[in-house]
Design a protein that fits this description.
With 616 residues, this protein is of the alpha/beta class. 42% of the residues lie in helices and 17% in strands.
């Protein structure tokens, strides 16, 4: 239920501007393939694109409540409020009368009953909007971990808001302008929580609510992790983690449409599948699982310090162990290089990134998944909670005074930023992207909740956990959620349960590292559910293609860029360095080297297709 856009203007009669709100809403059609809704009043207008997950027949949005012929309030949201059945029963007992079985009307009546404090009762991943006609105020809210996106753009006489930036660009008030800090954000992948790179635009932070009235704006947190002393021993800690995971899975399996799960054969995704199987198997159901693989991947694979083995055998072990209904999605290099697929990725994310085929392969996987299920679960956030990423455990990369994913590029690739190897040296000197990332890092860790008497080591590890739960998760959510919503699939992340996140944040490093391995506590919590091969498998990142045909396709695209004298990205690049890369075979042999070409190629498409005005 899954794309919202709106406009509040206290000086303008929006009933004369329906077409503008319809244009904004139309940009979100991929997020909501099952219908469109529009509600317009004098000073507020809501548009919605629906992905039907609950109340398939009657769960249309926006939802209005009126008394005596006068509108009291109107609500809409994206995502899912997973405890809507329980809240409906409670609200019915308080005298509210429901017309639908969907979760949007629950949001509306919860707001009318408890005001904005209703958010503390909501479970799930959601981004919601309520127009309170009594006070002539707009209320916006985003889920605790920020899985669902929500952007807003203040105007002199009101505010615009939407699930994605592209919907705001459909409004004539909004110009796609990017200044120096915006470009630095793109170049470093800093993931600043409230700062999309577009000038004048804001992103509502995870766990925040905002209220907009005539001449007033208030943004405040309603949830963040709190620092607590951890007193449990290892067995009790493992048992608590397992219990929190089981409770989260019970909530995340609520759906009236087919639901599945991604499966890489790693611990995180396999754990999600096993926990789901524990619930579904007694009902006589099996988990639908999906794995991505590349043509000739096994033939081209060479072990490295980050990827010791391909995913397929481990995923197969999980499928055999649990008896899932499985589909392996095989992707050819030609599909990864397909300009239509690459354009769709950029359109989905509204931003260029250096992730290259990680983007495109996930989009192609999502496109196949959409043929079978409407909701899919992933293993996101487990690495953030349990320090699963290698750079957190690296004594150099984790202590460079910047985001560790930025530090990794500096240490391993002498990079000025992620994918920045072909930018003009004078531009890099002017923008100083690494200084920008370090400043954003300092700002982020300054917010990290901390006990007064915490040790230096525990302080450091909690700071790393914090930047992953905030900045890195903002990047990850914008990656996975957006690519699946681009094909009309809702994403759920069971590890993003706020109780589990807060519990994990407060685990002392001695416990997190009790066995000297990444995610030892999570391994222990899942040990009885998974095959030994998966439990003992070392953390492996999302796979990338190793086929030389993809490298050749990238090289051809780069050659066309070099020949295009009107390419907007040219003024940002070191053209001699680009030419040297294109003319010398083998220069794109690694994923990091490819990223240096992937980002300029996407940046060029972004500048051109979005009509970006650079102010640097």
């Amino acid at each position: 239920m899954s794309g919202i856009a709106g406009w509040v203007d206290f000086d303008r009669d929006l009933r004369r501007n329906r077409s503008t709100v319809l244009a904004m809403t139309a940009t979100l059609a991929c997020r909501g393939p099952d219908g469109e809704g529009l509600w317009v009043s004098e000073h507020a207008a809501f548009g919605h694109r629906r992905l039907a997950v609950f109340d398939l027949a009657d769960g249309h949005q926006p939802v209005e409540f009126s008394e005596g012929g006068e509108v009291i309030a109107v609500a809409m949201h994206s995502g899912s409020i997973l405890n809507h059945d329980q809240l409906r029963r409670e609200l019915t007992g308080r005298g509210h009368r429901f017309r639908t079985g969907g979760d949007t009307e629950v949001l509306l009546f919860a707001y009318l009953e408890w005001g904005e404090e209703c958010v503390h009762r909501l479970e799930g991943t959601f981004a919601g909007a309520v127009w309170d006609a009594r006070t002539r105020q707009l209320w916006l809210v985003r889920d605790r971990l920020g899985v669902e996106p929500l952007f807003y753009y203040p105007t002199p006489t009101g505010v615009l808001f939407a699930s994605e930036a592209k919907a705001l660009f459909a409004h004539p008030f909004v110009e796609a302008e990017v200044d120096g800090d915006g470009l630095r954000e793109v170049m470093t992948y800093s993931g600043t929580p409230d700062f999309p790179p577009y000038r004048g635009m804001r992103r509502l932070r995870a766990g925040r609510m905002a209220r907009f009235g005539e001449g007033s704006t208030t943004v405040r947190p309603y949830w963040t992790v709190q620092a607590h002393e951890h007193t449990e021993d290892i067995p009790s800690t493992v048992a608590t983690i397992r219990g929190l995971l089981e409770e989260s899975m019970d909530r995340n399996l609520v759906s009236e449409v087919p639901l599945g799960s991604l499966l890489s054969g790693g611990l995180d995704s396999s754990g999600v599948v096993a926990l789901a199987d524990r619930v579904l198997k007694p009902r006589g159901e099996s988990v639908r699982t999906f794995t991505v693989n590349f043509s000739r991947h096994e033939d081209n694979f060479r072990p490295s310090d980050t990827r010791e083995a391909v995913d397929a055998p481990y995923a197969a072990d999980v499928v055999a162990h649990l008896g899932t209904t499985h589909r392996s999605v095989l992707i050819d290099p030609a599909e990864l290089a397909d300009p239509i697929a690459r354009a769709a990725v950029l359109r989905a994310k509204d931003l260029p990134t250096p992730l290259g085929d990680m983007n495109t392969s996930l989009y192609l996987l999502a496109r196949e998944v959409a043929q079978h299920v409407r909701v899919v679960m992933t293993g996101e956030a487990a690495d953030s909670i349990f320090h699963g990423v290698a750079w957190n455990r690296d004594p150099v990369e984790s202590r460079m005074g910047t985001f560790p994913w930025v530090a990794r590029g500096i240490v391993r690739d002498d990079a000025q930023g992620l994918g920045c190897g072909l930018f003009d040296p004078d531009l890099l000197k002017k923008l100083a992207p690494l200084d920008y990332a370090a400043q954003r890092y300092r700002e982020s860790i300054a917010e990290a909740p901390m006990l007064d008497d915490v040790s230096e080591e525990d302080r450091h590890m909690r700071e790393l956990c914090w930047v992953h739960l905030t900045n890195f998760m903002e990047n990850q959510n914008g990656h996975t959620e957006r690519l699946f919503k681009a094909v009309g699939v809702e994403v759920r992340m069971p590890y993003c349960d706020h109780r589990l996140v807060e519990y994990g944040y407060n685990l002392p490093w001695a416990l997190q590292n009790f066995d000297g391995r990444e995610k030892g506590l999570l391994r222990s919590a899942l040990r009885d559910l998974l095959p030994a091969s998966v439990i003992e498998r070392r953390k492996t990142p999302y796979p990338v293609t190793l086929d030389s045909a993809y490298e050749a396709a990238l090289r051809a695209e780069g050659t066309r860029l070099l020949a295009d004298t009107q390419a907007p990205v040219r003024e940002l690049l070191d053209l001699s360095a680009l030419r040297a890369v294109l003319e010398n075979p083998g220069t794109l042999g690694s994923w990091a080297a490819r990223a240096n070409l992937e980002l300029p190629l996407q940046l060029n498409s972004w500048l051109r297709d979005y009509g970006i005005r650079l102010s640097i």
